[in-house]
Amino acid sequence: xKQFISPAFRKVISQFFRSQAFTLVELLVVIAIIAILAAxxxxxxxxxxxxxxxxxxxxNLRQLGxxxxxxxxENNDTLxxxxxxSARWVxxxxxxxGVQTPQxxxxxxPLWDCPMNPSLIETPPSSRSDANxxxxxxxxxxxxxxxxxxxxxxPSAKFMLVEAVKEYTATYVTYTGLALSDGFYVGHRVGxxxxxxxxxxxxxxxxxxxxxxxxxxxxxxxxxxxx
Length: 227
Fold this sequence. Notes:
It contains 5 helices and 7 strands; from the N terminus they run H-H-H-E-E-E-E-E-E-E-H-H. The protein has helices at 7-20, 24-74, 89-93, 209-212, 217-220, and strands at 121-122, 127-128, 135-138, 159-163, 172-173, 191-196, 201-205. It has a 5-stranded mixed β-sheet with strand order 5-3-4-6-7, with helices on one face. The model has no long low-confidence stretch (mean pLDDT 80).
């Protein structure tokens, strides 16, 4: 039996569906609102992502600090050498960072990489030169004659590891050899993360005396072990 739909009912149905559809103007308005919301949210998302990377960097430094403290406790309270080619601090520290087969010329632990300023990766895969890492040792603490950590004056205000750009080719940093423009990495909200000699980790601004004016007396106190 053929069903019959009255013209009046058809008209009601047609008007209903037309009323649910977007007009072109309404669609453009919705697209514009979505674009505005995206523009407002993207900076917040980037800020959150950068903050997460900064926290990962600080955790790396804490783990490196634990490794250095463990090495020191097993080696008469001293740090590993900073500039002995056959026994540089990076390679001596690798066994304390979970590396099962450390080498004398390449670093393999992912803890050397700041997510915002990763180390220069070389061949073989995942290996890093000790001169192009995200983190560098304070030269005054351990060059060719490592000092005892217990002899460091005011350790809570003394740099142990600082961040440098991977293009800066040295395993260590000294207050007379690196200025802000030369290679300190200050990409963490215009600052850098630092491991201090008492093993705490803290972000400092690029205007910090130890970073901004490393050649002046005001900055030396953060580098020199007995000041």
